[in-house]
Specification:
GO molecular function: hydrolase activity
Distance between the termini: 63 Å
Keywords: Hydrolase
InterPro entries: Acyl_CoA_acyltransferase, C-N_Hydrolase, C-N_Hydrolase_sf, GNAT_dom, UPF0012_CS
Protein name: Bifunctional GNAT family N-acetyltransferase/carbon-nitrogen hydrolase family protein
Pfam families: Acetyltransf_1, CN_hydrolase
Largest sheet: 14 strands, mixed
Length: about 525
């Protein structure tokens, strides 16, 4: 009697899924086989795709091996020149120009391992893109397709004539024929699209698949503005008698931000040290431990204020005890009641000497209802790598709570914040303390001139300053920053620092970014 067959011995597993970091090595090796005469992806480019638009990156896995992949981003295609190149549409392969509010999914590469062609792998990847376009309610998919057989016919046909012959099925082209069979229609032919594509003589066919399930929404339109209003509190450090007195001062300023219709209210670094004025502890290290006992009350206060006044609050920073160590932590209190935190990465010599503050090791970028933001506490803004990383992760605004006791220290913060705004085409906001705490050791004097800064170009404020407080008085500054102008300037400004940096010459690598 024959045994029952174990069908699992015959099964093969083929899966279309999103790419993960663990797939990158296989994809890089596969590309060498698929496109041996073209410049391959760099690891950092694929990592950038996964950071910025992970749902748009697909692969096909067959019995544990990656045999096909594709990459894409979302754009407003009408904003790009008719003769755009692959570098233009992908921002040099890093897709930092990805626009989640765009109308078109743009496919930038499809590849299938030659050993597995004939298994409809490319079709599966195209179907995954189409399904994504339907899920995201995108108007169409656009691709810049190679015409790799054109070099064989260059003496016989012009690029247009060659494309017509392929469309009429008189000539077979492995890419163009495939795209036509998958429902893509020719829009135009772009010269110089891929400089290293010698087979296509640098030409590309711009093709489009229209999503018939697309439903226009009235709220989706070309934005001329996306203003975000910010209230920066230049907070007066003065003696108080209780936490309740501190809470009243804080609520007053949150109310001011609410009255101005602000999206963010920003408090300074370690302004909660004002509580030390009634703690009656003269030894700085011990006073900090006592101060950290107010952490829960501080968090409850700001959470309630953010929800009640409908304002996202950058709650300055506060000294927090964790695992018997003291950290300088800035909190984001969203107006929906959720909370995030950013540890200070670089601790000043003064903080180490007087309070024994420990550094954090994680650079965070936070989602808000006004886009992605980052927080860099005082000294951190003086290290340009952190801002570069935050912007690469999508940050449009970097908030900088600071506390400095003299003009020189303040100017270090200010100049670096303005430099980061220019270098990274990002908005920066600094909020500092003023006044005196004469009875508190190491917090006796303060100096600040808080402000909101922009990149330097025609569409921004003339001197790169949206607004600033007068120096050394208790006040606020309120200003609007426009995220739509920022997005457009990153793509087509007089200078484009994000686009033009020489990634072929230098790069910044980060370690231990998954810590606290």
């Amino acid at each position: 009697m024959s045994k029952k067959l174990d069908l699992s011995n015959f099964e093969k597993k083929l899966e279309v899924r999103n790419i993960t970091k663990d797939d990158i090595d296989q994809i890089l090796e596969m590309q060498k086989v698929c496109f041996p005469n073209m410049v391959p992806w760099k690891r950092e480019q694929l990592e950038s795709h996964l950071r910025i638009f992970p749902e748009g990156q697909f692969c096909v896995e067959y019995d544990g091996e990656i045999i096909g992949s594709c990459s894409s981003l979302i754009v407003n295609f009408d904003e790009y020149d008719d003769k755009h190149t692959w570098d233009d549409i992908t921002d040099g392969g890093y897709i930092t120009n990805h626009n989640p509010e765009g109308f078109n999914l743009y496919g930038i590469e499809v590849m299938v391992d030659p050993e597995y062609r004939g298994m409809k792998i490319g079709r599966r990847l195209y179907e995954a893109r189409k399904e994504l376009a339907r899920e995201l309610n995108l108007k169409s998919i656009i691709i810049g397709g190679r015409i790799p057989n054109y070099h064989k016919f260059k003496d016989q046909y012009s690029p247009r004539e060659y494309v017509e012959e392929v469309s009429s099925q008189n000539i077979y082209d492995p890419v163009l024929t495939f795209q036509i069979m998958n429902g893509f229609n020719l829009m135009r032919i772009n010269p110089g699209y891929l400089p290293d594509d010698r087979q296509s003589l640098k030409y590309a066919t711009l093709m489009e698949w229209n999503n018939i399930d697309y439903h226009p929404k009235t709220k989706r339109h070309f934005k001329t503005a996306y203003p975000v209003r910010i209230t920066v509190i230049q907070y007066m450090m003065k003696s108080i008698e209780s936490f309740e007195e501190f809470a009243k001062q804080v609520e007053y300023y949150v109310d001011v931000a609410y009255d101005f219709g602000s999206d963010f209210a920003v408090f300074p670094e370690i302004f909660t040290t004002q509580l030390m004025s009634f703690l009656e502890e003269k030894v700085p290290a011990k006073a900090i431990r006592k101060l950290s006992e107010y952490t829960e009350e501080y968090i409850e206060l700001f959470t309630n204020l953010a929800v009640r006044y409908n304002v996202n609050i950058i709650g300055g920073s506060h000294f927090v005890e964790e695992d018997d160590h003291i950290y300088n932590i800035a909190y984001l209190f969203r107006r929906d009641g959720t909370i995030e935190k950013q540890y200070k990465i670089h601790v000043t010599p003064n903080e180490k000497k007087w309070w024994g503050i420990q550094p954090g090791d994680s650079v965070k970028v936070f989602d808000t209802d006004c886009g992605k933001i980052a927080i860099q506490i005082c000294y951190d803004i003086q290290f340009p790598e952190l801002s570069r990383y935050a912007v690469d992760q999508g940050a449009n605004i970097i908030f900088v709570p600071f506390c400095t006791d003299d003009r020189q220290g303040y100017l270090r913060v200010r100049y670096c914040a303005q430099a980061r705004a220019v270098e990274n085409q990002v908005y920066t906001v600094i909020a500092g303390t003023v006044g005196n705490l004469t009875q508190v050791e190491n917090m006796d004097i303060q100096y600040a001139q808080s402000g909101i800064f922009t990149p330097s170009d025609f569409e921004f404020a003339r001197d790169g300053i949206v607004g600033e407080c007068p120096p050394n008085i208790e006040t606020v500054v309120v200003g609007d920053v426009d995220l739509e102008i920022l997005r457009r300037q990153r793509r087509s400004g007089t200078v484009r620092q994000l686009h033009d940096r020489r990634r072929d010459l230098f790069e910044v690598k980060y370690r231990n970014l998954e810590g606290n």
